[in-house]
Every structure is written in structure tokens, then in C-alpha cells.
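Sat 14:20. Reprocessing the chain from the morning session after the first attempt stalled halfway. Input below, unchanged.
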Amino acid sequence: MVFIKNFGALLFLFFWGTIISQEKQLQRANQAFEEHGHSKARNIYKKILRKGYHDKELYEKIGDSYYFDGKLEKAAHWYEELVKRHPSQIKYEHLKRYAHCLKHIGSYIDQDVTLQKLFINKIQNLDNDLASIVPVNYLQSENLSMRFVVNALSINSKYSEYSPSFYNNELVFASSRSSKSFSSVVNDWNNQPFLDLYYTTKGQKKITRLKGDINTKFHESSAVFSKDGKTVYFTRNNYSKGKLKKSTGGTTLLKIYKGEYSKGKWINIEELPFNSNEYSIAHPALSPDGRLLYFASDMPGSLGESDLYVCSINEDGSFGKPKNLGSSINTSGRETFPYISDKGNLFFASDGHKGLGGLDIFMATQNDTGNFDIYNLGEPINSNKDDFTFIIDESNHRGYFASNRKGGMGDDDIYGFKQIISFPDQKLRSKPVKKLERIFRLQPVKVETTSL
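Finished this time. C-alpha cells:
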């Protein structure tokens, strides 16, 4: 009898210790996830799953970790498991992400009866959220496609390259390729080196890191330069004077920094005064006259996951109060990576407006009412993958953008293009659809590799 009691006590302690251990592992994983250490977090989540725990949070977080890393094929698998195992508990946000993933990999909502029923039960009135996932074939009917000839660039590597920017006769871009300075440092997001800013001169193959204090051992990207070439605005992790800062929730967010050019180096790096430790401000763009600064942010008051904002740059160098660009631009999804052309056209990436999958590139022109008319640039600029960081020199109809489409060398690649057909006069607005439409399947586009 004593043996049975002792054995029972030991068994209880064993299971209790196992539960405590799993809770600690889950806490570690959640902390890593909140700090954008997605790769580290999902390894822990998967380890917990292998031990027989199948809580819906595990499937949500693993799916989300792949989704936020842009690995939508893998995210789709885990969201599918979530739908199968916990159909009555699934949240709308995960249905939406699952639908984005299906669209990204060329699948169809109308082939998945379970998903159809879940959408019908969760959503009474289809709005722009769902319209962005299941668009009508307006791109095809309006013949927006094939206005550009696209070519991959030889500057791409097996790592990530994006955020091209014009600077004199050079092309500046962000890359996670290993550098001699910080080659041993990798981030927990995707186990790649952190992003730095590089440049290459047109017509040459040499690639060089920007010199001075602009690059650190953490992320730098999305640079834009003043017309005189003496000032740069760029995105960096919340890192200054050797210290990495975090929000109250323990997350290192993004900020916009400003630098000055002197004797071949970028110096006097300082963050903009309206940055915050509690939300991200990133991806700056300048108006042609240099008096307006556009950027993306998830600050309080945003309509979606990230919105586009604008603020004035005053003559004394101070900044006006950031202003949201409004609901004709911003949706409940992501609007990000703005660019203002010399003609004053706004280009940006969005997964909230109707598109072909993932982030698509749009052009916005302001009409007489003060609102914006929206164009989707169509194929081959856009694909069913993420397409973003579009820039164009409208004087010669050439430019660059980034994409993680199939056929590239790395995670994200930079592509060059030449515009061969001008934009149409008709304005294409994002309107809600009244029923689920069959998702538009893209045809493959041949892309050749060239130098700049």
C-alpha cells in the first residue's frame, strides 16, 4: 500500500513537473515571438507539439511565425492544421492570413469547403478586408498587365536584397549578405545576417557598404536622399550610441534616422523627434521638393497593421505633426514602403487593396476631391508573391523594385524594369466584392538577368 501511494505521488510529481516545464518553454517561445525571433520561437513551439501538446495557440503561433517571415507556403500548412483541429475556435485574423497564403501559392478558396463555411459563419458582410483576398479579375479586364519589361539584376545574392534608392549615379539598396564587419552576427527572425546599406555604380559590378556611422550590427534599410545628396533618411532598429532599446513589451521596433554626408562618409546620425519606443516608424520617402516626408507606421490611430503618413520638413529643419493619409490609401491591412516620383505620384506596397497576392505595388494620384485614385501596376511588376519598394525615374521610364517571387536568387531580389506603356486614364478603385470570386491565377513571366 505504501508502495502504491509513493508511486502515485511520484507519478503526480512527474506529470506536474512536465506541465511546469512545458509552461516555461511556452513562455520562452512567446517572448522570442514578441521580440520577432520567429525562427527561435517556432523551434520551441514545434518541440512542444512533438511531445503531444496540440493547443490551438501552438498552431496559430507557428503559422504566424512563417507568415510574418514571408514564408507563406509553410504558413499555409500550419493554418490548414489549425482549421482542421480547431475549426470552431479559429479567429478571423487567421482565416484572413490563411486565405492570403492560399492565394500566394495559387490555390483557391472555393476548393476548400471547410474554409468557405468558416468565412460565411465569421463574416456577415464582405468588406475591403475580404475583397483584398478574393479580388475580381479587374487587372485582366482593364488590361493593366504587361506595361513593363522586367529583368533580374546581377547584384542579387542568396540573401535578401531590397529597398533600392537613387543616389546620383548610384543605386543604394539594403542587403543581408555577410559583411566583414559583422559577419558573425545573425538575427533570430530568419537566421540571416542583419541588413546593411550598400551601393553600386551603374554599369559596374562592384558592391560597397556605405561608409561612416550609417551601418551598425543591427538592421539598416530603406534609404532616401535629398536632391543635393547631403542628407539621408533611413530605417534602423531602435539602436543608438551602442545601445539597443526595447518597448515596454520587450520588442525592438523600427525608427527613422537622419544623417549628413561629409568627406565620403555618412555622419551625425540622429533619430527623428517623432519616433517612439512603443511603435514603429519606418521606410521614409521624400517629396520632389524635399519639404514632405512620407513613411509607414503602426502608431495609435492607424487604420490597419501599418498605415502611410506624411509630415512637413520645415525650413529650420524641424518636423510637423505626422498626418495619416486617410482611408482612400490605408486599409485594415499593410500599407508600407512609400515612394514619391519626380512627378509627385505616390507608389506604395499593400496587401489591403485588391491585388494578385501578398504585397502588391500600387500608384496613387490625388483627385479633385482630395482623395486618392488607386492603380494596381499589374503583371509583371506584381505577382502572387510579395512585391514592394518600387522606385521609378519618370524621365527615362526606368526603375527598380523588390520581390520574393519564384526564380530569384535569394529571399528577396531586386529587379529592374522599363515602362513601355503609360498608365491608363481610368482610375481603378478598391471596392468590396459581393460574393467569393475565383482567385486570379497568374501566368509565368520570363525574366532575364542583367547588370544595372
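The longest strand covers residues 254-262.
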